[in-house]
Amino acid sequence: MDVQALKQKATELRKATCKMIYASKTGHTGSDLSCTDILVALYYGVMHQTAATFTDPNRDRYIQSKGHAVEILWNVLADRGYFPKSDLKTYSQFNSPYIGHPNNHVNGIEMNTGSLGHGLALSVGVAKAAKMDGRSYHTYTLMGDGEQAEGSVWEAAMAASNFKLDNLTAIIDHNGLQISGKTVDVMNSEPLKAKYEAFGWHVIEIPGNDMQAIVTALETKPVAGKPTLILADTTKGCGVKFAENKAEWHHKVPTAEQYQAALDTFNQELKEGAK
Amino acid sequence: MSNEGKKAGAVMCDVLTAEAKKDSDVLVLTSDSRGSGSLMPFAEALPKQLVEVGIAEQDLVTISAGLAHSGKRPFAVSPASFLTMRSIEQVKVDVTYSNSNVKLIGISGGNSYSVLGSTHHSLQDLAITRALPNLEVYMPSDQYQTAALFKYLAHSDKPAYVRIGKKVLDNVYPDEAAAFSQPGHANILKQGRDIALIAAGETVSVALAAAEKLAGLGYSATVVDLVSVKPLDTALIDQLCAQYPALMTIEEHSVINGIGSAVADRVAANGGARLKIIGFPDEPAIAGTQDEVFKYYGIDGDDIAAQAVLMLS
Q: What is the model's pTM?
């Protein structure tokens, strides 16, 4: 897929995600929209993994450490054929496997996440196994910037560097907001670039909702012996004006009017993109 | 003839070294604990199959889960106090909820670290591990049981927690076959008629000593080695309830939510029986050698026999 097609796909999936959240009246709208472009770049552009190869031991791995942004992940996986799209009608309903965080009873989910601060260490284990077995797969994990306050993240950051895991790429969805407000006010974890560099990582900073920049960063050859961190400066709620850069949209559900406004925006973008 | 056996850690190391030589996916992960885990011979024999994560127990568990997800068979070895408290959320999420084939080995368990204080004691580990779905929980009582158990674990695909201590254990069994058969199967070590003493791990020898003392006083006690704290041998507990006027549990654990509580849950579900729970009280343990501390809290052959006589008179 070229970058223009990836952008179109991102808009389609933002629309599907908002639709699912509006219908179910639950979800992390702002968090989903913040990382949509990153997931699209991974699943439609860069990652060597498809529904058909999900059990292949040589597939690339994706572990979503910020598990709460699951609505976009469910929509990406459905669109990529990991399970029927119609399954998502059960999202957050009684006995559905499509719950509010990634669940490994669903095809396409590697490990359960949702409690923050686990994904990086899981990815260290997965990437370390690749090194031990001489496999060439790459492991990707997506974290939040609020998540950087978890001590276990830094244990794992240290281990990734210690084990020289140049087959591991962590991405921070660096939107500057978390549930209680600005990340720098809640618990300032900055400067993240300098901190990860001090921990022995190769750090790439990008505008995190810019599809071309994301793809370029993900396709950059790793520095030998170093794990890569992509510090993606994103906008929480990206694509829906009334939700952008507002902490309360972390897990807010749109009203009927807001939902309609979002749909109008997405439809307009899709129409223009199709030209 | 001396009945002295071997340290559980040394037995674990022997078994894991042999298993790991046969299967390169068998790994040992340590948190700066290869020495205290008696794992130096493993580290020397199979350096590529030992993953050192440093003093980072949360990472120890989660990295093990990531390795297990990729086909490895990791044994995460760390002091039981840290493994089951510092890392318990990682155990819950990454091991039991994700159903990762990680074997969690709590070394220097219970009161093993004695005078190092409560920071280093694991007297609540059974309470928390046996409450987690999808996790088997074991406490081996001698060298043969430890060996048989670790051979089983090396081939099992299920998550498990094992607590071992630092002591050189007395031999309880003549061989491995007699010591361990399968999850959820307890062993009757001695058949009596008056009372059943139920123990696991290092207190099995204490229960046997109590039975011997009781014999001298004219009472005959059955002694049960649970081995498998979870799954619990509920059929045997039911049988003991029907057969004996009194049961006693003896454990190196808080009396809250340990072996006694596990047995009590089954006893209550079964219509009830007289049951006395012997273990550590609900307080930080007193300082002393492990033997001194056991004696202080009445986890000792003479005191248990006296308690049994009181129950029966």
A: 0.96
